[in-house]
Amino acid sequence: MKYVIAGNGVAGMRAAESIRQFDPAGQITMIGDEAGPPYCRPMISLVLEGAVDADRLPIRSPRFYEETNIRPLLGSRITKIDVARRSVATEAGDAIDYDKLLIATGADPRPVKAEGLDLENISYMRTQRHVQSMLAGLNGAQNALVLGGGLVGFKAAYGLMRRGLNVTMLIRSGYPLSMQVDEAAGQMVREELISRGLDVRVNVEAVGFEGNASVRRAFLSDSSEVACDLVVIGKGVLPALSFVPRDKIDVDLGIVVNGCMETSCPGVYAAGDVAEYVDIARKTPWVNAIWPEAVSQGKIAGMNMAGRKVSYPGSLSRNVIRVFDLDIMTGGVVNPPPDALYKTVVYHHPGQKLYRKLVFQGEHLVGLAMVNRIEQGGVLLSAIASRTPVRVPREHLLEPGFNYGRLLWRRAG
Ligand SMILES: Cc1cc2nc3c(=O)[nH]c(=O)nc-3n(C[C@H](O)[C@H](O)[C@H](O)COP(=O)(O)OP(=O)(O)OC[C@H]3O[C@@H](n4cnc5c(N)ncnc54)[C@H](O)[C@@H]3O)c2cc1C
Fold first, then answer.
1. Which residues form the domain of 152?
2. How far is the CA of 164 from the centre of ligand 1 (A)?
3. Which pLDDT score is estimated for 412?
4. Same-domain check for residues 338 and 287
5. Same domain, 155 and 226
6. Does any domain span residue 401?
7. Which of 18, 332, 354, 369 has the smallest CB count inside 10 Å?
8. pLDDT at residue 403 above 90?
9. Are residue 138 and residue 90 in the same domain, yes or no?
10. Co-location of 246 and 104 in the same domain
11. Distance 274 CA to ligand 1 centre (A)
12. What are φ and ψ of residue 55, in 5° steps?
C-alpha cells in the first residue's frame, strides 16, 4: 500500500503515525513545503515575544522520519493532484503515486488588498520563517502595526509589545477577537489592551503603505496615517487547497469530508485546517481551524486509511486565551443568529472583570464565552461536546460553584 501525505504539519504527522501503527509495512511519503520536522505552530508567537527559543518548536525529533520508516519530501510544494492516475505533482517536477492520499496542507493567511504590500518588513504570521523575518526586522524598529484583532493579530501585537515596540492594532470590526467572543467580552478585551498601552483602532483597515524599500507609513480607510517600521498581517486564514481539483473533489470553504475523513473522491482523505466536517454545536458543516481538531482528525484519517473503520464525531470551536489579566475561554456558538430557538443567559460584573455567557438551543448548551473565573469551562465544554441535556434551570450553570454531577444525575434520571 502506498500512502502519500500532503502536508508536514500536525494533522499529517498524526495521520502518518496512525498509519504506521496499523500498517507496519506500507510505504508512507510525507510531502511538505516547509523544511524540518513538524513543529508547534501556535508557539511561534512565543518565539516572537522572546519567551521560548525556536529550537523548542519541533514536536518530533529530526529522526522522526527514519524511526517511523517514512520517506520525507520536505521543501517540496505540491502543485497538482491527478486523481485518475492517483498521482501528486510537485513544483520541482516530481510525481508521486499513491493508493491512498491525505490532504493535510493546513491553511494560508487570508490575503489583504492594499497598495505597497511588497515593501520590506511587512509579514504574515503563519510559519517559523515569518517569525524569523519579523525578528530580523526588529532591529531599530520602534512602531509596529498589526492588521487584524483576531487570535493571531492579538498574539503578534502582544509579542511585539514585549519586544518594546509601540503597537497599533487595526480591527475592521468593532472589537477584538470578534470570531471568538461576543461584543460585551470583546469590549472588555479592548479596554484591557488599551490600558496596557496598545493603540487599538476599530472599524478601520489599512488601504496602503509607503516607504523607502522598507515600510515607513500606513494609510488607513478613515483617511488617517500611522507611522510604522514593521507590519504584521493577521486577518484570519483560508484552507490551503489551491492544488485541489474541484471538479473531482468536493470543496466548500474547506475540503468536504465524511466521518471517516474521506473526501468525495475514493481513496483521498483530508484532515486539519484544510478539512470541513460537521460542527457539533452548530450542527452544520464548518472549518474549525484549531490545533486539537487537527490532531484528532489526523489520527482518525490515518486509522481509516490503514483500514480501521473509525468515525469522527465532529469538531467544536474552542479557545483559551490570556489577555494580560483576563483569562478568556470560548467555545461553540457564541454569537447565535437571531433565532427563537436560541436562549442566552449572562452574568456580567464589570467591576470585577467577570463575564459569563451561555448559549442554549432547546435543552442543549451550545456555546459559552467566559472572562475570568474560567475554571469550570472544561466541564461546560464537555457538556456541549457530549450534547448533555440541561434539565436544571439554565441560570444554575452560571454559578461558579455549579456541580456538573447534577447534570449527569438528571441525565441518568
Ligand atoms: C500564530 C498562531 C497561533 C495559533 N494559536 C492557536 C491556539 O492558541 N490554539 C489553537 O488551537 N490553534 C492555534 N493556531 C492554529 C493551529 O496552529 C492550526 O490549527 C494547526 O497548526 C493546524 O494543523 P494542520 O496540520 O492542519 O496545518 P499546518 O499546521 O498549517 O500544516 C500544514 C503544512 O502543510 C504545508 N503545505 C501547505 N500547502 C502545501 C503545498 N501545496 N505543498 C506542500 N506543503 C504544503 C504547510 O506549509 C504546513 O507545513 C495558531 C496558529 C498560528 C499561526
1. 122-235
2. 27
3. 46
4. no
5. yes
6. yes
7. 354
8. no
9. no
10. yes
11. 9
12. -75, -5
The structural domain count of the chain equals: 3
Looking at the fold, whether 16 and 95 belong to one and the same domain comes out as yes
In order, the DSSP letters of 53-119 are -GGG-BSS-TTHHHHTTEEEEET--EEEEETTTTEEEETTS-EEE-SEEEE---EEEPP---BTTTS
Q: Which of 241, 291, 317 to mutate to test the pocket of ligand 1 (most atoms within 8 A of CB)?
A: 291
Residue 250 is placed in which grid cell? 468536493
Tell me which residue has cell 509601540.
Answer: 166
CATH classification of the domain holding 372:
3.30.390
Quote the pLDDT of residue 181: 96
Say what the pTM is.
0.96
Mean per-residue pLDDT over the chain, rounded: 95
Torsion angles phi and psi, residue 168, rounded to 5? -110, 135
pLDDT at 305 over 90: yes
* 298 has pLDDT over 70: yes
Closest protein CA for atom 53 of ligand 1: 126
pLDDT digits (tens, 9 = 90+) for 138-179: 988 999 999 999 999 999 999 999 999 999 999 999 999 999
| 404 touches ligand 1 (CB under 6 Å) | no
Cα separation, 156 vs 239, whole angstroms: 21
| Ligand 1 atom with the shortest distance to the CA of 107 | 30
The answer to whether the CB of 152 is under 6 A from ligand 1 is: yes
- Report CA torsion sign: 84, 90, 96, 101: negative
Q: Is residue 326 part of a domain?
A: no
Per-residue pLDDT tens over the stretch 8-17: 999 999 999 9
Q: Which three cell numbers stand for residue 339?
A: 433565532
The one-letter amino acid code at 143 reads N
Evaluate if residue 410 carries a pLDDT over 60.
Answer: no
Cα(244) to ligand 1 centroid in Å equals 18
Asked whether residue 113 is domain-assigned, the answer is no
